[in-house]
Design goal:
mainly beta; Porin; two-stranded antiparallel ribbon; globular
């Protein structure tokens, strides 16, 4: 009997060793095999505008209405060895690639690294994706992405993956390039250094998942431009009136005189449970052969309140917002995998006031022979109501009142000095993400 007992113990030990070796082999195979995660987003918009006579003359457009896909994106991402990451985002509506980068994380130094076509570390409004914003479109600050921020070729260093109260990121990028063109090749300097820091002096979460925090952030970028290829690089800015369907509130022509620029952006976010208030202001100090030393300012203040009690999903690792998750989804999956109607979902109201001043560019560019656009000042107020059926599905309803005070010449070469107009914009969006 003693011999049988020893044989059983030996067999058990051998089985445990085989199990351990198999687990090690499976883990090694898992680390060596790249993971693949497929995601995507569909944003479908309907919008209409009503312009007064002054705004019609300045923009050259009458009342507009219609519908279109705002985004149809497929996202492929993954990792390998828990250190290598990659991401490719395909825009199906335009057959173009948006994100295309590879990176290293969990390095011994604690500093992450990316190279490829990606967003610069600039402004939380830029880094927060459209499907996570309380309103259909972002602020006028985001409209400067044609010359600062947005997606550009470059290299990025950061510690976002290990961030808690403090994050930083910095990198070298192309100064401007079409977001749907991955090549940026020229004979002249066309480089930008961009950096961003965020700090949470106070952060707390309660048992219900509500967040209470104060966020401070600052971005800086120095940029030099290839003036000869400004048209190829699409070095220009379009200030949308809360929709791609309706006329732009302001727009620049091709800024082919832009030589260099120093840019500063300040951020202040405040959240107390279901209430959040966000503020950002950007200062764009331009050295331009046509406009001289010009200052363009843009910014916004936005408030959002969740009627059903949820907090917006703030991501400490990047100092930006993610998708809101309803406590009681309207559509959820039961145990047998069938979708059922259950709770009220999440209801949110939002308001934004955003402003832009491109007056100092008017004298240099607003003439018929100099790539005319629509220069001056604009103030836009936007009100929104959102219904989150679940974390992946949302209905949005927006109304925007756009005021424009114009200078120089419009895009048709007509003098618009002193034109002061109003535009009403109505919008609706259906959103699905996965």
């Amino acid at each position: 009997m003693q011999a049988d007992l020893e044989a059983v113990k030996k067999q058990m030990a051998e089985d445990q060793e085989k199990t351990r070796l198999k687990k090690e082999a499976d883990d090694l195979k898992k680390y060596q095999t790249p993971s693949v995660k497929l995601g995507g987003v569909l944003l479908w918009d309907a919008a209409g505008s009503s312009l007064d006579d002054e705004m019609e003359y300045a923009t050259g457009s009458g009342d507009v209405s219609g519908c279109k896909p705002r985004q149809i994106w497929l996202d492929l991402s993954g990792s390998m060895y828990e250190m290598i990451q990659y991401r490719v985002t395909f825009d199906a509506s335009n057959s173009t690639v948006k994100d295309a980068w590879i990176g290293l994380v969990n390095t011994p130094s604690g500093v992450d690294f990316k190279v490829g076509h990606m967003k610069e570390p600039w402004s939380s409004d830029e880094l927060t994706t459209f499907q996570c914003c309380p309103l259909m479109e972002k602020s006028y600050l985001n409209s400067m992405r044609g010359i600062c921020g947005s997606r550009n070729n470059g290299i990025l260093f950061s510690n976002w993956s290990q961030a808690d109260r403090f994050t930083w990121a910095a990198g070298l990028f192309a100064s401007s390039m079409p977001e749907d063109d991955l090549s940026c090749i020229g004979e002249h300097g066309h480089m930008a250094f961009t950096s961003r820091m965020t700090y949470l002096p106070y952060y707390e979460e309660n048992a219900q998942g509500q967040r209470f925090f104060t966020h401070l952030g600052a971005s800086y970028s120095y940029r030099s431009y290839d003036q000869e290829k400004a048209a190829d690089y699409s070095t220009r800015c379009n200030f949308m009136s809360n929709s791609q369907i309706t006329p732009n509130a302001l727009q620049t022509g091709i800024l082919d005189g832009l030589e260099s620029m120093n840019v500063f952006c300040l951020e202040l976010y405040w959240m107390r449970g279901p209430l959040s208030i966000d503020f950002e202001h950007g200062f764009f100090f331009m050295e331009d052969d046509r406009a001289g030393s010009a200052l363009v300012q843009t910014g916004y203040v936005m408030a959002a309140y969740t009627l059903t009690g949820e907090s917006r999903n703030y991501r400490k690792a990047g100092g930006s917002y993610g998708r809101l998750k309803p406590n009681e989804p309207f559509i959820r999956t039961c145990r047998d995998g069938v979708g059922v109607f259950s709770g009220p979902g999440a209801w949110e109201i939002a308001y934004m006031c955003t402003w832009a001043d491109t007056t100092e560019l008017a004298d240099g560019y607003a003439a018929a022979d100099f790539h005319p656009g629509l220069y001056g000042k604009s103030l836009m107020n936007v009100w929104g109501l959102n219904w989150y059926l679940n974390q992946n599905c949302r209905l949005m309803f927006n109304y925007a009142l756009v005021h424009g005070d114009y200078e120089g010449f419009n895009k048709r070469g007509e003098n618009v000095d002193g034109i002061d107009g109003l535009m009403h914009v109505y919008g609706m969006r259906f959103q699905i993400t996965f």
